[in-house]
Amino acid sequence: MSERIGITGANGFVGRAVTRALLDAGKEPLGIVRQGAGAYEKQVPSLDAITPAVFEGCASVIHLAARVHVMNDAAADPLAAFRAINVDGALKTADAARRAGATRFVFVSSIKALAELDDGRPLTETDARRPPDPYGVSKAEAEVMLQEFGARTGMEIVIVRPPLVYGPEVRANFLALMRAIARGMPLPIGAVTARRSLVYVDNLASALVECATHPRAANQLFHVTDGEDPGVAELARRLGHHLKRPARLVPVPVGVLKAAGRLTGKAAQIERLTGSLQVDSSYIRDVLGWRPPSSLDAGLAATAGWFLTHKNTTS
Prior knowledge:
Elements: E1 4-8, H1 13-24, E2 28-33, E3 41-43, E4 58-63, H2 78-99, E5 104-108, H3 134-153, E6 156-161, E7 164-166, H4 172-182, E8 186-187, E9 198-200, H5 201-213, E10 221-223, H6 232-243, E11 248-249, H7 254-264, H8 267-274, H9 282-288, H10 296-310
Parallel strand pairs: 1-2, 1-4, 2-3, 4-5, 5-6, 6-10, 7-9, 8-11
Helix pairs in contact: 1-5, 2-3, 4-6, 6-10, 7-8
Organism: Caballeronia grimmiae
Protein name: Epimerase/dehydratase
């Protein structure tokens, strides 16, 4: 019988890719989802309802379920709402998995647990945590508390911090950028040279399978990226190439963009757009021998291909 690996949030964007990767690796995925359970899945109403029985037979668990970052959070206390799911929920899930006999818990965190921008060099796993917002704070706290849980119980805790994840079925800002390029909209980012680390969803899924199964991954913390950090304008140009619609980039000076951001109350968004976020992912390559199966260009091509096929249903 193949090794069974649990996945919380298995019907999400990353979860579906992880399920495919596990099947390709000859493993038995068991998805734990909140609604609409299908093949390889069990349904639970919430993380609070997870019991050891849910993870029966699992050697390890990949924890993707989370309250994700949102631009306009309606919660009265956003930090408390993030903590309830991303900290308390993760700890309850890890404990249920351990009680069911799982020996390893892979926590999918975020680079926001560390920082939102780099300080002039790629961020490494040993840098001090400086989370920029309630979402990042919740992920950072979960990392620390899970490591303490592992030290106390003997469960192997593996933490993975991806930067922006893209691929077919992507949503949010990456999808908005593709829409704008496809529609021929002028974009004021032609002068933005800041570099950004990304990870293609299938590359992240491949790394998570390694983290769930490789003996040397035990109790490690890894950054995972495509290994190529395009500039903001370069990314738009490359997407335009694959969308068969050259990106219309206007070279507005970065200083002008920042001034406009201050005037319009969007200074934080402009700072993220014009600032550098490079992430060093050499550690997972050195420790596990992992390499991203797909290049950045192949990932962008697959994402653009999906968009062109589904653009009438992604608006």
